[in-house]
C-alpha cells in the first residue's frame, strides 16, 4: 500500500502526479481496515494474467463477487495500444460461499489456458470440487475441459470423479471410491464459446455422478 515519503529527491512531481498521489493517499486513509470477508458485489476474489492468445499483450481473468453466494468471471483481452479490453463478463457463474472451503479461484494451466475452480468442501455431508478449463482456440476463448470430483463424509465408498476433454470428447468417469467402477470413452459434448457458459453446466457423461 502507499506510504507518504518524508522527503522527495530527484525531479519534482508534476501537478497531475501530485493530484493523483493525493487522491490515492486520501482513498487509503478513508478505507477502513478489513475485518473479514467482504460480501459486496464487485469485491475481488482472484486475478490471473497470461498471454493466452500469444499476441504479445498480457490478457487477464478476474473473479469478483456477484449475486448472493455467486461469483462473476471477467475475461479481458490485452491490446498493445489500448491495454486490457473486455472480452466477456459472465455473471453469477460459480458458487462463492463465505465460509472456508467455499472460495472459487483461478488456476494457470498452460500458455494458452487457465481453469476456473469452485468447491464446497467446508460444510455438509457431500463435498465437491470443480474445474472448468478455458483455452484460446481458433481466435477465441472456449470451454475446453471439465473436471468434477465429490466424496461423502459418511459413506467412504460413495462419490467419484468425472474428467472430460471437450476438445476431443474423451472422458473418464469413476463411480465409487473403494470399489470404483471406471468408464472411458468419447462423449458427444464438445468445446463451445466461453460466452455461452452458464452456472450449472456439466457434460452429459458426468450426469451419473453429478445428477441432472
Describe the 3D structure.
- It is a single chain.
- With 212 residues, the chain is mainly β.
- It has two helices and twelve strands; from the N terminus they run αββββββββββββα.
- The protein has helices spanning 15-30, 207-210, and strands at residues 44-50, 59-65, 70-79, 83-95, 105-110, 113-120, 126-137, 140-152, 159-165, 170-175, 181-186, 192-193.
- The chain starts with 14 loop residues before the first helix and ends with a helix.
- Residues 1-35 have low confidence and may be disordered.
List the helices and strands and how they pair.
Elements: H1 15-30, E1 44-50, E2 59-65, E3 70-79, E4 83-95, E5 105-110, E6 113-120, E7 126-137, E8 140-152, E9 159-165, E10 170-175, E11 181-186, E12 192-193, H2 207-210
Antiparallel strand pairs: 1-2, 2-3, 3-4, 5-6, 6-7, 7-8, 8-9, 8-12, 9-10, 10-11
Helix count, per DSSP? 2
**Helix percentage:** under 10%
Low-confidence stretches: 1-35
- The Cα radius of gyration reads 22 Å
| Mean pLDDT over the residues | 86
